[in-house]
Amino acid sequence: xxxxxxxxxxxxxxxxxxxxxxxxxxxxxxxxxxxxxxxxxxxxxxxxxxxxxxxxxxxxxxxxxxxxxxxxxxxxxxxx
Length: 80
Prior knowledge:
The protein has one domain. 45% of the residues lie in helices and 14% in strands. The protein has helices spanning 7-14, 18-26, 38-41, 53-60, 64-70; strands at 4-5, 33-36, 48-52. The protein has a 3-stranded antiparallel sheet with strand order 1-3-2. Helix 1 crosses helix 2. 18% of the residues are buried.
């Protein structure tokens, strides 16, 4: 189980497109994640986005286990 999610994973949990996640985090509208600029990360290609799973779950009003379930990472009885 990971605590930091990507924009793509977050979009799957919320049910929107990853670009919407990136833009709203970049503009400070959604505060459950942060932008790591290419300069900060040393990546000359693009910015990256780090989303805290627990802050996302709190923002959505769901348990963190539900975030994992939506990502297919649950460990319930139907998982091997």
